[in-house]
Amino acid sequence: MKKLLLLDADVVIDLHTLGVFDRISKGFAIHITKTVLEEVQYFKSVGKKTRIHIDDCVTVIEFVALSNLQTVREEAKEARLGIDPGELESIACLTQEEENLIFCTCDQAAIKLLSFMNLDGRSISFEKALRSTGYQRRNLYPRHLEKTFSEYIREGKALRIMYKRFT
Q1: DSSP character string of 114-135
Q2: What is the dihedral of CA 61, 151, 22, 54, to 10 degrees?
Q3: What's the CA dihedral at 94, 155, 116, 106 to 10 degrees?
Q4: Calpha distance 50→71 (Å, rounded)
Q5: Alpha helices (H) along 55-145
Q6: Residues sharing a CB contact under 8 Å with residue 146, sequence separation 6 or more, in sequence order
Q7: SS3 for 61?
Q8: Cβ(94)–Cβ(101) below 8 Å
Q9: 76 in the Ramachandran plot: left (φ > 0), alpha (ψ -120 to 50) or beta?
């Protein structure tokens, strides 16, 4: 059985830009939230915008509980992090899903929030996810790298120590 990978909009766009979306979709069962689907309309390739069509090869998560969204908003506020709607909905989805979803994002604030919320065990870097499919080329951007991801995880843990209200 394939691992379940929940993708953020930045990852979907970058996978298309690099021409490796098919590779990752063969290695994982891809899930995205409804908001992320709305965010991923186009990617740029050779100076032109190309439409992204993924409806038929991903599972779209239609419903995320309002209580989970509110919890993530409150956690982001407590951590003093600005989170975009797609990341907010994806992280809320992680908190409600029984399945073993693993979230992949390149967004700095989202990665820190995952760590702040102690969800870093349910996340993966772009590089690690792509490398697990056998991809070995070195054309990744700094935001994709495991090293960058790990640094944001450490920063999220530091935020947890600084700001988390323990009762």
Answers
A1: HHHTT-GGGEE-HHHHHHTTT-
A2: 30
A3: -20
A4: 36
A5: 66-79, 85-96, 108-116, 126-131
A6: 125, 127, 128
A7: strand
A8: yes
A9: alpha
Q: Over the stretch 120-129, which tens digit does the pLDDT of each residue have?
A: 999 999 999 9
pLDDT digits (tens, 9 = 90+) for 110-121: 999 999 999 999
142 CB burial (10 A radius; 0-12, 13-18, 19+): exposed
Q: Name the token pair of 35.
A: 């908001």
Q: What is the pLDDT of residues 12-34, one digit of tens each?
A: 999 998 999 999 999 999 999 99
Show the tokens assigned to 13: 């766009």
Mean pLDDT of 60-64: 92
Q: Which residues contact 124 (CB under 8 A, 6 or more apart)?
A: 5, 102, 103, 104
Question: φ, ψ for residue 28 (rounded to 5)?
Answer: -135, 160
List domains and CATH numbers for the chain.
3-163 (3.40.50.1010)
What's the predicted TM-score (pTM) here? 0.91
